[in-house]
Amino acid sequence: MQTPILDFFNVNYNYHTISCETAALKGISFNLYKNEFISFVGPSGCGKTTLLNLIAGLIKASSGTIRIGGKPVDESELNIGYMLQKDHLLEWRSIYKNLTLGLEIRKQMDEEHLKTVDNLLKTYGLWDFRNVPPRQLSGGMRQRAALIRTLVLSPDILLLDEPFSALDYQTRLNVADDIGSIIKERKISTILVTHDLAEAISMSDRVIVLSKRPGTIKASIPIRLSIENRTPKTSKDAPEFNTYYNKIWEVVHENEDN
After folding, report:
1. What whole-number distance in Å separates Cα of residue 106 and Cα of residue 83?
2. CB burial readout 124-147, b (16+ within 10 A) else e
3. Chain centroid to CA 237
4. SS3 state of residue 29
5. d(CA 189, CA 69)
6. Residue 201's Cα: distance from chain center in Å?
7. Helix-then-strand count for the chain, H and E
């Protein structure tokens, strides 16, 4: 039986303020396996980004167990890549210097790592823009640069927090297709947080639906599409796509008035 690369067991997280305690996540249990792509969907405020922050070690669970590579979060030797909604490219650095920032911080500016940067720039169409500032790139190109910056650090698990939400519809489709293909090609275990059900279905092996706050898991739905050479774009042509969409939409919106 395959061992999960990430394991959540009965995880709870509460926000504390001076006046009160608010439950954000309640009883979250799931596994992520190697090379698997999972999406989390659910209403605003249900704790999706909180879940990513727990995995990244930015906050600690109030209770429950989180293991990465079989070890507690703060002891794990696996690399976590985190791609946020905004690209956070530094305007005073060229694209190349943005992509090598993590390597500088880790003191890994050696020939092998820099060769990886060059190869990624060439492979994903940004080589000719390596010496320009981020403001000269389109929104889609900026997101591609942000992904490359993350990939340079060789993440074992990639966290995506609505990375396409600021893009127009057509650019969003193209960038999601690019990034989805890159992730599959490099076989990176990935968790995506999104409000877009079509995006979740088209990119994922499994979609997990969270309830309104406090977020609990309402359903975990495996995605099996009968289409060859599946990509995010071609997934929408699969005969099962609309069935999955309707099923997940119903789960997300059931009991909304309660």
Report:
1. 18
2. bebeebbeebbeebeebbbbbbbb
3. 23
4. strand
5. 12
6. 14
7. 9, 10
Evaluate whether 44 touches 24 at the Cβ level (below 8 Å). Answer: no
- The letter for the amino acid at 44 is S
- Tell me which amino acid residue 130 is: R
Q: Distance (Å, rounded) from C-alpha 35 to C-alpha 4?
A: 10
Strand locations in 127-252 (E) = 157-161, 189-193, 206-210, 217-222
Q: At what angle do helices 169-186 and 139-151 cross, to 10 degrees?
A: 20
Q: Is 174 exposed, middle or buried (0-12, 13-18, 19+ CB in 10 A)?
A: middle
pLDDT in tens, the chain (258 residues): 678 999 999 999 998 877 778 899 999 999 999 999 999 999 888 889 999 999 999 999 999 999 999 999 999 989 998 988 778 889 999 999 999 988 888 888 888 889 889 988 988 789 999 999 999 998 888 888 888 888 888 889 999 998 777 677 777 777 788 778 888 888 899 999 999 999 999 999 999 999 998 999 999 999 999 988 888 888 988 999 999 999 999 999 887 655
Q: What is the rounded CA–CA span in Å between residue 107 and residue 221? A: 42
Alpha helices by DSSP H, 14-168 = 48-56, 95-99, 101-106, 111-123, 139-151
Contact by Cβ (8 Å): 198, 30: no
Dist CA 141 CA 171 (whole Å): 10
